[in-house]
Amino acid sequence: VPSNAGLISRVRAAAQVSIENKDANHNSMSVDFERKDAEWSELLNPLHYATSVYVLQLIDSFIQPATEFIRNDKDQELYDQLVLDASLFRQGLIESGGFDAVLRFYLRVKSYSGEKSVLGMENCCVLRILKACLYGRSITSSIGFDMSVTPTIIDNLGQTVIKSIDNVPLLLENLTRAIVMDKQISANAITDSLLIIQCLLVSDSEKTQIFATLPNRLTENFIVNLLLRESHNDCNGSCVESRQIRETTEGLVMRIPDLSQLAMPWLTRALENLSINKRSTDNFFSVLQQMVTNTKECDDNLSKGQLQVLSENVCKKLVSFCDKDSSNSVNTASGVLCGCLKLLKSIIEISETNYLESGVKILLSKYESLPWSLSHPRDLSPGTAILVDLMGVIFDKFLSDSVTSSLSSAICSDSMSRQIAFEVLNCCAKLCEYGEGYVSLCSHIGKLLSHATPTLRHKWGRENIGLDDAGTASTLGNVKYSGLKNQGCTCYMNSVLQQLFMMPELRKSLSDATLPVDLRTTSTSSKVKGSELVCKEIALQWESGIFFNAKVIAFNETTSTHTLRYLPVSVSDCNVNKFALEASISDLAEEFVLSEGRPGKETGVYKIISSMQDDERNVKGKFNRHEESDDEAAYRRLLEEVQRTFVHLDKGSRGRVFDPKTLVEASGCLKLEFDIWQQNDASEYAMKLLDKLEIPLKKWSPNAFKFLEHTFRLKQTKQKLCKECGLKTNREENLMNIDCQIRGKSDIHEALSTMCEVEYMEGDNKVFCDNCKKNCDTVLRTAISALPDMLILSLKRFDLDYNTFETVKLNSRCEFGQKLNMKRYTLEGLEAMENMEDSGRTLNGDDDPLNILPDEDYEYRLAGVLVHHGVAQGGHYYSFIRDRTQSSEKDDQWYRFDDDEVTPFNPSNIEVECFGGKIKKETKWPNGQVNTVETDQLANALMLFYEKVKPSNFSHGGSNDEEMQELSEENGNDIEMITGSEHFQDDVCRSNSMHRSHSFLFQNDFQDFMQRLLNLFLTEISTFQDADLTSSSLVSQYLAILNVCTSLFFDILLHNVDRKSLEEWCYTLCQAFRKSVKGSVIFVSELARRTHFVADNWLQTFSVDCPEPQSREAAMAVFASAIESALHSEKESFLLNSWTQEWEEELVAWENHVSNLRHPLPIRPKTQQNNNTSSVGEIVSCICSLLDFSPRFWRFSPQLCFLLINLGIIDNEKVRTCIRAALAAAQVPARLICTILRDKSHPVLRAAMPGASLSAEVVEQTTKVESSTHLLPLNTNSVGMNSGLNVLGPASGSPTPSDHSKAIEALAVLIGIRNMSPSCLTLEPSQTRGGPTTDLTQSTKYALGTIFEEFSTERGSMSQKDIIRYMQVCKGAAITQQKLSNILNKYGSGPNCLTFEGFLDYYRDVSQTSEVEFRADLHALGFRPDLSRCPEDLRIYNEASEKVYFDEIERVVNDVVALAKNDDIIPMGNLTKLGLNSLHLYHTALFSESSHLAKYLMALAVNVIN
């Protein structure tokens, strides 16, 4: 607010504006102003700089008054006067020469050196005045919130001002220099300057050239600096002021075409020097992108040359990310990486690949990436080769750098940068000629899939794969440490292990501890590898602890997997033919990595049976002096598992959560108070772990043993002092920790003082003195005689309540500091205090007897806190740990280790998180009343880890170390030793590569990209016919996309069940196969080829191995769609018919030998030619094989029956007949009957299919118990993982009739009734405010609507008589009056009628209580399982002019006869007929979920047999 009245008068006089005689209707243009040049020159005199700046402030306040502070209804008159005064003052300033004077003052020669603060005020005022003179009140504010400042139209007075400026170059230079040179200039001033410059340049194109050629690259620095501007306190580039300046600068550049073209080389040079950590780069790259797009319309060579340089600089900048330190997180989501990728995409889109050639070479050279074009199957044009090579670099290094390297990570580490990188890939592939880009991309994605597939074959679900809800572990991000997986109740173990791991020297010592090579757990696999095991018998250990024998069949060099078959387990079953039993109990072949095993099955430990005795003799001869006891072997394995855990945590890729399950198992030897899988005391576990680790370390790695002892071992001395003779007797005790009693103690010093309390033994309690030879008064005290480098204090929070004799937890407050001086608790400290007392000196001031002891030898610093949250009976453990590694960014960096989550922690919160005590909780009631309750803080410290500030020197020993020499001589010098780091190095590299592959493949961004590729296939394929595709050059592109998407679906996505994603992929793939017969033929051929393998056999994998029913069902749906589409091919249809004929001939030959009951039915005809085999026939043969083994996985068999149902209900009659004939010839119906009846099957059927007819008892005896976490536990009340062995495996237990429902439906469909597959009656439950609700499907509502209309005498409602008649028909009995009243009361619109909505509500409730009853009602009214309805003449007949319903048996027979006429019944073989003659079949069907099928099946069987 102006305060100098004299200057105010002079300024207003010079402008010839008076506050009097103005009204709102005053027209400023009618005022004549005189020139006052002399007055203005005197007011704005550079010689009186301070006064001149004050005058500028006065002018600014008059021309732009702060009206926003007085704008309200009461002061409207004042507001109008200020606005009018500003308008008059503006005109007076301009016409009286004031504007020219301001300009002259501003354009004087001045220097910014050392005058930033003074010139800053001048610049702000002048810029505001210039802006106001140009625009008037059309712009009153400079700073907005969500967009750039856009100038409005300049009025006539502003146009006059522009024309009056005679030294535009100097003005532009001063405006630019002010921004570039004054680093403290305000954001408002910058915005004002941008508006003024834009106003000047828009008015005259010549001025743009002047602006661009300002000296010393002023304009270049001006544009670049403002496009990249960040304020000093702008931590993430989101400051409103800075963002608005950047956006306004972008508007300035892009609104002036000449400036846009001139600025391109400036920004290109700036890009070269741009830091990759720069945050606010969106506008910078946006301008460059628009410039690149505009160059497409320019034909001049200059623009194209600039584009060439820009392309090179973009690639050079992308190269700089190669050197980015992975430990320092870079926010690339809105930074340089995303900008470069977007800019690269823009360059690609202008379709000028020549611009990219040199840049792509730079990328290939720096990243040492093999060009994709060299491995392409066909020769590529130069332009296409460049794009393909660029795709290779982006994909291999920026997206999926996990296949070739186990230690590096992909550059695009956030979702936004990955999305843009995938857009670059798609853009490149789209511009390649003849679809070669998509072919190359799909080829390399296929290689990535083949690399990851073996590691996923036996892992199902996010937990087993190692993913969290976001796709990767939660530690991924700014934290450089990985977490540990909790096995259920093992947080006590994880918290201790993480404390030990974060001790760098201890971690290295334990990891480098040596053990004999031959005693390592995986020593067998290290001695005998690969193909050497083929044809040998081995014994494999399962997680149950039992060894099972198997014979190795083959070895795959590529995947390092062995194929084996478990040997039959002998059983006692007198009722089973011996030959049939031996043939039936053999297992399917298995393929996996022997040293790793499979989750829930093998542990990875195995022995070679043929050489076990030799090995034992060799080992005994070699280690005859070092035989291990069982306990020693257990402790050695414990050490080995600790090494494995530490090496994986240390060398594993960031973000990979390690699963220490084997360490948990090995910890069983510690004999904790509770089972190792249940919660235990973390302090107990820590002490027993360190104690038992000493045993193998002392024997095999003495240096590591000494270091462990040196780190933790403290000596506690119990001292006895005779008061008569002064004899001191010391007894030392070695400890690993100090137990601190905290009951009634306020801090850790009080707890430690309790340990050192002096006890006086007098009177009857005198103690015998060895010197005095009598009982004397004695002083007993305890002190620490030797301190360790790592001091562990265990707070005794778990105590016994002597009233209840139960363990309770003490949540009382116990304080501890960041530093701890142990001087007063040591023996030296006590003796120093004692010496002072003996000398008679008194303690005063700073005269502390402990000062004679150096503090550095007793000073400790807090390094970790282990916290327990909960009560004595249960809770959770986690740790706070200070990072002590040299690479730590700061000395006081703490982390919270909470199992698999590792997050930064602020140590200032230790008091709140760890001290314990009382906390106050406030509860606010709806009436406003606040209730405060004081409760215990359940989270408090249990263990404290203090690190010595000055560690004592540790010597690793040498030849003069007698103890080490003795140990070395004892163990022998001829033993081959290996450290844990060396032993587990390959395992870590493999795990890192596997983790990165899985993380990439399961990323939503990658899956979305693949989904877009598949949708592209669907979009393009719909425009072609298969005949066109045969000759089209794009066929390879589309088939490559379909092939890689199919592999992704079966090998990757189905292992991680995400229902929504699964349904989308399943639907899209089914659509793709239905639209492309050629693609279906290729897929079916590949599916058939895979049936000859083990692990690669998709049909076997999703029938036998996969435990997820949703995944199995999705796989079967895709199989059925592909087979249906493939059979539209004339060739495949012909081959399948030929295969069917061969099967029929094979069956005749087999029946000639069936009398001796020793020849099982083959699964494929022997006469088929390999060169001309039907792919669908091979698949049917595999189905036959799986059905023969189905008793071994009967819980998984419904999905295999689901595949058969889908094949039997194909709409196309020709295709349906073809596939049903093949299934009938292969005796699939007979095999289904065997799987249903098992040992109750006809003897001929049991002889033909011994595996399918195996009894439940034999299966139970020969089944190996699994302990997979994805299987259902038998005992749901068990706690922890110790109950994991009691599970429902795929073959455990005996199937009930309901378990055979799908098999019965499949049998009915294959015999000849297509309508037997039940439709869903309800939709998936939806969540509402009142809870989950279930609705009926549309087809169900339509069926119920038909019924409602039939029984309603009045339109829209059913009366009581209608309801009674309806219940009589569907229930077969009259409804009681009470039940009728209940229905009407709950669902009726009144006491006498039921509306259709009430009818639907009734059946909604019935569907929730009994779906069987629901289906029975529909069945009674003639609805088939698929909700189709048999014709009325088959349900109703007329008798005496009345409609009478056939009884159920009559209606079913009528329906079956009619269906048989419409759908030809395929001739069934004798085996099927024998099965259909079995009463047990119909008995099972009657009590299954598809009970109505029993009647249909019996009626159909009569028709088939006859």
The SS-based structural class is alpha+beta
The major pleated sheet works out as: 8 strands, mixed
β-sheet strand percentage: 5-15%
Show unreliable segments: 140-148, 325-333, 403-407, 469-477, 619-625, 1026-1031, 1269-1287
Report the radius of gyration as a whole number of Å.
43 Å
Average predicted local confidence, pLDDT: 82
Give the CA-based shape. Answer: globular
Number of strands: 31
Helix content: 40-55%
Question: Can you put this structure into words, describing what you see?
Answer:
- This protein is of the alpha+beta class and 1506 residues long.
- The protein has 61 helices and 31 strands.
- About 4% of the residues have low confidence.
Question: What's the structural blueprint in terms of helices and strands?
Answer:
Layout: H1 5-15, H2 37-43, H3 49-63, H4 76-95, H5 98-106, H6 116-135, H7 156-164, H8 168-181, H9 187-203, H10 205-212, H11 218-227, H12 240-255, H13 257-272, H14 282-295, H15 301-320, H16 336-349, H17 357-367, H18 382-399, H19 415-431, H20 436-456, H21 462-465, H22 491-501, H23 504-511, E1 514-516, H24 523-527, E2 537-542, E3 547-556, E4 561-566, H25 578-584, E5 590-592, E6 602-608, H26 612-622, H27 630-651, H28 661-666, H29 682-700, H30 702-712, E7 714-722, E8 728-735, E9 738-740, H31 748-755, E10 759-761, E11 767-769, E12 774-776, E13 778-786, E14 790-795, E15 798-801, E16 806-809, E17 819-821, H32 827-839, E18 859-871, E19 874-882, E20 894-898, E21 901-905, H33 910-914, E22 918-924, E23 930-936, E24 939-948, H34 962-971, E25 977-979, H35 980-983, H36 985-1001, H37 1004-1021, H38 1026-1031, H39 1035-1051, H40 1059-1075, H41 1077-1090, H42 1098-1105, H43 1109-1126, H44 1130-1151, H45 1175-1188, H46 1197-1208, H47 1213-1225, H48 1228-1237, H49 1243-1248, H50 1256-1262, H51 1301-1311, E26 1326-1328, E27 1331-1333, H52 1338-1351, E28 1357-1359, ...
Parallel strand pairs: 9-14
Antiparallel strand pairs: 1-25, 2-3, 2-6, 3-4, 4-5, 7-8, 7-13, 10-13, 11-12, 14-24, 15-16, 17-18, 18-19, 18-24, 19-20, 20-21, 22-23, 26-27, 28-29, 30-31
